[in-house]
Amino acid sequence: MRLPAHFTLSLFASSVGITLLHLLGLYVFLEGFLLTRHTLSFKGRTYDTWERFPLLSHPTAYIPLNLHVPERPPFKRVVIILIDALRFDFLLDLPTTPPQHYLNQLPILQHLHKTQPASSLLFQFRADPPTTTTQRVKGLMTGSLPTFIDAGSNFASSAVGEDHLLHHLSQHYKEIYFMGDDTWVQLFPDTFYRPNYTFSSDSFKMFDLDTVDRRILSHLWPLIENKNTKDDKEKEGWEVVIAHFLGVDHCGHTHGPSHPNMARKLSEMNTVLERLLQQVDNETLLVVMGDHGMSVEGDHGGESVEELMSGLFLYSQRPLTLAEGPNTTAADRDYYRGLFHRIHHARADLLGYDFELIKKRLGYDATQPYPIVSQIHLVPTLAYLLKLPIPFGNLGGIIPDILFPDTASKVDILVHMVQKYRTNALQIYDYVLAYGEHAHHPGFSPQTLGPILKSLYDADALLLTKASTLSSHLTMTTQEREETVEILERALLSYDTFIISTIKYCEGIWAQFDVGCMAIGIAILFATLVAHVWLIQRPSTTGILFVSTWVGGCAGCLGLVVARYTVLQDLVHRYEWFGKMDWLSWIGVCCAFATLLSLFSMRRLLRVTAGWVRWGGLVLLCLLQALALGSNSFVVWEDRSVRFIAATLCCGWALVELSLQKNSVKEQCQCLLGPLLVLVVVRGMGWVGQCREEQFPYCTYLHNGHLKLDSLGSVEGYGTLAWILLSCILVFYLSRLYQHYAINNGIASTVLLKMYWISLGVVLLRQWDAIYQNSPETMAATAEKYPLLAILQNMQFIRKSIDVYLPRVVYGVCGLGTAVSLTLLKKNRTLHAAQFKRTAWALLCLWSAGLAMLQRPLGSLVMFIFPLLVQCMEQGHSQSLPIRLYLMHTLGHQLFFSTAHQATFTSLPWKAAFIGFDDMNYYGGMILVALSTMSGYVVSWLGWLVLLSSTVLADPSTHPLVRSCLLFLPLLQSIPTCFSALFVMILRRHLMTWKIFAPRFLLQSLIAIGSHVAAIVLERIV
After folding, report:
1. What DSSP assignment string belongs to 433-445?
2. Gap between the Cα atoms of 311 and 358, Å rounded
3. Model confidence over 353-398: pLDDT tens digits?
4. What is the dihedral of CA 888, 889, 890, 893, to 10 degrees?
5. Cα angle vertex 512, ends 508, 517, to 5°?
6. Is the pLDDT of residue 3 over 50?
7. CA–CA separation, 460 vs 455, rounded Å?
8. Helix axes 378-386, 165-172, angle to 10 degrees
9. Using CA atoms, how far apart are residues 862 and 868, in angstroms rounded to an integer?
C-alpha cells in the first residue's frame, strides 16, 4: 500500500483519535486508583482456644492448657429482621419541636430495653462506607471490609466468593428461610436455592412502599406462628428466618425521612416486632438491625453520619449480658459495665469515631448509654451465640456485652472472655497471614505486621505468667485473685487491641494505590491534552514520517515494558507498581504513546488569529478553574463558585458586545439585553439545588420538599403556586419556540409538533402529580371530599400509566423527533445553513423536554428555562462567539447543581432508573440515571450546536472556523479531568479523598467522556 505524501487529519478523525486516547488514559489511571481486595476461598474452622500457645513460641514449645469454662447452649432458633435504612435515631425516644415523622415510631424496642435490660441489648450499628445495600449485606455476613470499587456493583450483585456466616449456618441449621430483598439470593445462591424456603422480591421498585413488606408478612406469620404444628419426626419446623424489609428505605428514597409515610412504615415495623416478640422464648434469638442509615434527603451510598449510623437490637427471653445479669450482684454488674465500657471506648478511639459530630447531626448523645459497634462485629458475635465457626475472612471482634458463660465466678467469666477473644484473634491472625501468602501482598508479611502482632504476642505472654495457676483459682488468696483478674483484663484488652488494630491496618493497606498505573494514566491524559491543543491548529505531515514515528515510538515503549519485566522486576515489586496492568494494557499504552509521538511530528497549518487568541484567554480561565480542584473547600462549595463564574462571564460578554457595537446608544442598550437576562436567570437558578453534607448549616436551597399543596396560605404554598404558574408559562413558551424555530411546512414536522405538545403535557402532569403526592393533607382532604377521584387515583392502571406508559411516550417523541430532524437535515443539503439551525433548535427543545422528565419538579422547571437562555445567547456578534460558548459550557455545570445534583454518591438520582419502567432494567436504568445526572451538560452541548448554527446562518463564510470550534468542546472538559486525576494521585492519602476528591474525579471523567462523544456526534451534524 502506498503511503500518502502529505495529509491532514480530518476533524472527525482528530475527535475520534483524541477520544480513544483519553479513554485509554482514564482506564489505566482507574486501574491503579480503584481499590480491590483479593478474596480467599478458605473456610473458617472451630479452634481449640489454647492451640499454638504461646503463639510466638516454636511449635515444640507450645504449652497445652486445660482450661474449660462451662458454656451456655446455643440458641436453637434465630430470627433476623433487617429493616433497610433503619437509622439509629429512628429507634430512640427523642423530644423534638416540631415533631418529626421518623422519631418515636418504634416504642417497643425502647420499652424492652428499659423493662428487660438483661434480655435486650441496643447498639449504635456503624456501617463501613460505601453505604449501599449490596456492600452492607456482604459485610454483615462475611465480617470483611468493602473496597471502593464494590460501590459500582449495587445494581448488579454477584455471588460472594469468600466464606460467610450463612455457609456455617446451613451446616448446623437445616430449616433456613429467607424473605425480602433479592440481593441476598444473588449474593448467597449456595444458601438460598430452595424455592419453598426462599421468597425473594425485587429490591429496586423504589416507588412501591408496601408490596415487598406485605409479601414478607404473608410468608412470615404462617411460618413463625405455626412452628410447633409440624410432625417432629419429619420436620422440626423453622430454625433460622431472615426477613429483609424494604418499605422504610423505599419511603426514604421516594419521600425522604420527614414525611407521614415514614411514620406509617415505622409504625408498621413496630407492629410487626410486637407480634414477633410473642414467639421469642429462651431458645430463640431475635436480631433486629439496619444495614445503613439514610441522609436528610432519604438516600444513601455515601459516608455522612446519617448514612453510617444504623441500629442493632438483640433480644431473647434468656439473659444476654452480664452487665444486667439477674444472678449477679450489684457490684459485679457495675464491674462488667465498666469493663465493657472500657472495651468499647478503646475501640472507638482506635477507629476514630466522632461522637460530637454524631450528636450534632442526629441530636442524641452518642457516648452513652448505647455503645457504637461496627457492623463487621456482628459476624463473630452471632458465631459465638450460635456456636458456629467464625468465617475465615472475618475482621470483626466479638461484642463484649454478650459474653456470658454458665458460671458465676468472676475469674472463670474473665477466662471465658479471654478464651473467646483469643479464638477470635487466632482466626484473624490466620487470615492476614494467608492473605499475604496468597495475594503476594508485602503489607501482610509477618515482618510488616510486627507492630500489630505485638499486641497478640503480649496477650499470650501475660497469660503465660498465670498459666500454672489459672486452673486452681478457687484456692487463691484474695490478693492472688485480684492479680489474676488484673492479668486477665490486660490480656483481654490486648487481644482486643490486636483485633481492632488489624481492622484499622487493613482499612489503610487496602487503600494502597498502584502509583505506577496512576502515573502512566496521568501521563497519557496530559500528553493527549497537549495533542488536543496541537490538533486544533490542523497540522499536517507526510505518510512516511507519521508511520516511522509511530513504529519507532512502539519499539521504544516495548523496550521499556521488557525492562519492567526483567531488570526492573524487583524494584517494581518492592514499590507495588504496575501490579494491575497485564500485557493487553501494556500494548495499549505503547500504541497510545506511539500515536502521540506521531501527532507531535506533524507541522502546524493554521496561523494564529484574533479568534484563537480569544479562545486562549478562555482556556487559561478553564485552567485556573481546574487548578482549584485541588482544594477540598472549592469542591465542596463548587456550586457557589460556578454561579459566580457564570455571572462574571455574563458581564464579560456584555463588555465584548459593547466594544464591538459602534452605533447608537439604543443599539448598545439592545446588545446588553441578552447578557442581562442571562445574568438574572443565573442568579435565580442559584436559589434551587441540593446541599452537600459538608455545607450544613450554611446552605439554604429551595428544594422539592418545599413544593406542597397542604398550606397554600404559607410561604411554601405561595412558592408552589408560583412554580405551577411559571411551569405553565414556560411549557407554552417552549412549544411556541419549537414551532417558530424547528418546524418547516412538511407534514412530518407538523405531526411532530402535535406529539411534542403531548410530551410537554405529560412532563407537566407528572410533576404536578409529584407535588400532589408530596401533600398528604391535601390528598386526605381530596379523598374525603371526592371519593371517586381518590379511587381513580389509586387505580393500578392510572398509577401505571403515569409512572410507566406516559414517560415512554416522552421518550418516544424525543427519539422519533431526533431521527426526523436529522433525516430532514440530510435531505436538505442545498439549504444547509437554514436547516442546520432548525435541526439544532429541534434537538434542543426535544431533549429539554425529555430530560425534564427525569428530574424532580424544580429540576424540570430549570430544564424548561434553559432554551430561553439559549435564545438570549443566540443574539450576539460573531466575534463574541468564544465567550458565549464558554458561558454555555459553564451553564451546563450550573444546571448540574440547580437540578439538585452534587458530586457525591448520595445525590445520585436512583429514582430516575424507574421512570418509564415497571421492573428493574439494569442497562435501561443505568442509562436513565446517567442521563438524569448529565442533563445539564447534554442540553449545554446542544446549546453549542444552536449558537454555531446561528453563526453559520448569519455568515456562511465562518463555517470552517465554526466546525473547528467543536474541538474546544471536549478540550474544556479534558483540562479539569487531567488536573483532577493529578490531584487525586497527589492527595490519595488525604482524609477527604474518598468523600470529596474521588467522587468529583469520577464525575469529571463521566463529563469528559460525554463531551468527547458529543463533539463527535455534533461534528457529523455540522
Report:
1. HHHHHHTT-GGGS
2. 14
3. 999 989 988 989 898 889 999 999 999 999 999 999 999 999 999 9
4. 120
5. 165
6. no
7. 9
8. 10
9. 10
Please report which residue ranges of 283-329 form alpha helices under DSSP H.
305-308
Angle at 402 between CA 400 and CA 404, to 5 degrees: 105
C-alpha 756/C-alpha 125 separation (Å) is 51
Q: Which residue has the cell 458460671?
A: 407
Mean pLDDT value of segment 496-520: 85
Place of cell 509521538: 597
CA 389 to chain centre: 33
Give yes or no for a contact between 854 and 933, defined as CB atoms under 8 angstroms apart: no
Residue type, 929: V
CA 346 – CA 663 distance, rounded (Å): 77
Inter-axis angle of helices 165-172 and 133-142, nearest 10: 50
Nearest one of 400, 435, 399, 424 to 414, comparing CA atoms:
400
**Confidence bin at 188 (pLDDT 50/70/90):** very high
Is the distance from CB of 537 to CB of 606 less than 8 angstroms? yes
Q: Is 316 exposed, middle or buried (0-12, 13-18, 19+ CB in 10 A)?
A: buried
The DSSP H or E segment spanning 564 is helix 543-564
Cα radius of gyration rounded to whole Å, the chain: 33
610-627 and 968-986 are packed helices; what angle lies between their axes, rounded to 10 degrees? Answer: 30
Tens of pLDDT, residues 818-863: 888 888 777 765 556 777 888 889 899 999 999 999 999 999 999 9
**What is the pTM for the complete model shown?**
0.80
Give the three-class secondary structure for 690. coil
Mean pLDDT value across residues 682-687: 91
- Tell me how far CA of residue 816 lies from CA of 673, 809, 819, 844, 846, in angstroms: 35, 10, 5, 14, 10
Task: Name, in order, each residue with C-beta under 8 angstroms of 806's C-beta and a sequence gap of 6 or more.
Answer: 762, 765, 766
Count Cβ atoms below 10 Å from residue 970 Cβ, excluding itself: 26
Respond yes or no on whether the N-terminal peptide bond of residue 867 is cis (omega within 30° of 0). no
Higher pLDDT, 546 or 621: 621
* C-alpha distances out from residue 203 to 51, 245, 869, Å: 45, 10, 40
- C-alpha–C-alpha distance, residues 778 and 553, integer Å: 70
| Per-residue pLDDT at 281 | 93
pLDDT, the chain, mean: 84
State percent of the chain over pLDDT 70.
87
539: pLDDT strictly greater than 90: no
Distance CA 437, CA 954 (A): 70
pLDDT at 6: 54
Residue 305 scores a pLDDT above 70:
yes
The three-state secondary structure class of 808 is helix
Distance CA 749, CA 832 (A): 17
